[in-house]
Design brief:
Length: 400
């Protein structure tokens, strides 16, 4: 993306993540923030939702590698500067709602009036059409709850739907999708000269992620996707098992006739391979709870380390059930560079996950997020403004 200029008028995580990914891939991404408040994500520390002190990781995550300019686009001077920046950009990226875009004069026609060839990309909660097109939303609600994901993963006995696995779970997936859509639109423009408008939404991302379950519901009229307790798993080799020391492993051995004999033999019970109840896949499906109980007993007699050694010897597809702290030292994560060492603007070291794509074996350039308005003078200087004019704009409050 070297040479591609992106102008971002967006806040929080979902759409800014797309800008962060494009910056990691080499684009020059200018993030426009209000001179006084900045991106509201910066206020999460004072709200108590993230720890006070240390690295502002929820700012770093979506804003990696960008340049920040403090610009009041409601003012005439600020709006004029925004249009001058848009005239030089390849991409305009926003998550402002339709009414906001109209009021601020930053909608598609406004931006294309100064740059007909710009790719205009917008992300929303519910999509550009329909009765809720002008309503905002977050990933834990629109992506997670509304898509059917929360209902599908929540055990009935729990009595309530679980929340998504962590902060920004749907946001980072959706942002990656928008970055891919922008890339495709830039390729289309290069080949045809036509500038496209790219739309993504948290609802579309949620329905995409739940595509298999939604297709099953449509095909078979299933009101709720079946869920099973581990002890009742239909396929004992596609299940999660506890070890002696309270850890868990996940098996996904779909070719059960291939893996059952070797696994039970390695676990010290070779007679289970010849047991008529478990003679083949059909028999094990018929006696699924007995097969599951047998494996649960065998895994429960061993520590996580012992089980891991047995499974790592090629007994079939499996994975340890890890906590986030475990993933940081996972040898495959480390070997492939799936975590990058970064320092924030104050020199505090932290780790950031790069975009999950590599080019010629290399991840993108993962750099820290900017401070609020850190590059205002620099960017305005590139527009040809001298320091006297920049100071005038600062005094008027149009820029930071």
């Amino acid at each position: 993306m070297n040479g591609i200029r992106v102008l971002e008028v967006a806040s929080w995580t979902y759409v800014p993540v797309a800008g962060g990914i494009l910056a990691e891939w080499g684009a020059d991404v200018i993030k426009v923030e209000h001179p006084d408040t900045g991106d509201p994500q910066r206020g999460l520390v004072t709200s108590g939702l993230v720890p006070l002190g240390g690295v502002a990781h929820m700012v770093e995550l979506p804003n990696r590698g960008k340049r920040s300019i403090g610009l009041d686009i409601k003012s005439e001077e600020g709006h004029e500067l925004l249009l001058r920046l848009a005239a030089r950009a390849d991409v305009f990226l926003t998550n402002f709602l339709p009414a906001q875009r109209t009021k601020l004069r930053i909608d598609v026609d406004d931006i294309r009036a100064v740059n007909p060839g710009i790719v205009y990309a917008r992300g929303s909660a519910h999509g550009p059409q329909g009765p809720e097109a002008n309503e905002g939303g977050y990933d834990n609600s629109t992506f997670w709850a509304r898509s059917g994901a929360a209902d599908t993963v929540s055990p009935d006995e729990l009595g309530y739907p679980v929340t998504q696995p962590g902060a920004a779970f749907g946001d980072v997936l959706g942002g990656l999708t928008i970055a891919g859509g922008i890339s495709a639109a830039l390729l289309h423009r290069e080949r045809t000269g036509e500038a496209l408008t790219v739309d993504g939404s948290l609802l579309s991302m949620g329905t995409w992620a739940m595509g298999a379950s939604l297709a099953a519901s449509a095909a078979f009229g299933v009101e709720r996707i079946p869920r099973y307790k581990p002890a009742e798993a239909p396929n004992s080799l596609v299940n999660t098992y506890a070890t002696k020391d309270g850890r868990f492993v996940s098996l996904v051995m779909l070719q059960t006739d291939r893996f059952w004999p070797e696994l039970v033999t390695a676990l010290g019970r070779p007679e289970l391979a010849g047991d008529p109840r478990f003679a083949d896949h059909a028999a094990r499906m018929k006696h699924n709870e007995e097969a599951t109980a047998a494996l649960a007993e065998l895994f429960g007699e061993r520590t996580f380390e012992e089980v891991s050694a047995i499974l790592a010897a090629g007994r079939g597809p499996w994975a340890p059930v890890q906590r986030p702290i475990d993933v940081l030292s996972d040898p495959q994560v480390v070997a492939n560079g799936y975590l990058q060492d970064v320092k924030d603007s104050k020199g505090n070291p932290f780790q950031l996950v790069p975009a999950p794509l590599q080019f010629d074996g290399e991840s993108g350039d993962t750099r820290r997020a900017p401070e609020h308005g850190e590059h205002t003078d620099e960017v305005l200087g590139e527009l040809g403004l001298d320091m006297d004019r920049i100071l005038e704009l600062k005094i008027s409050g149009s820029v930071l």
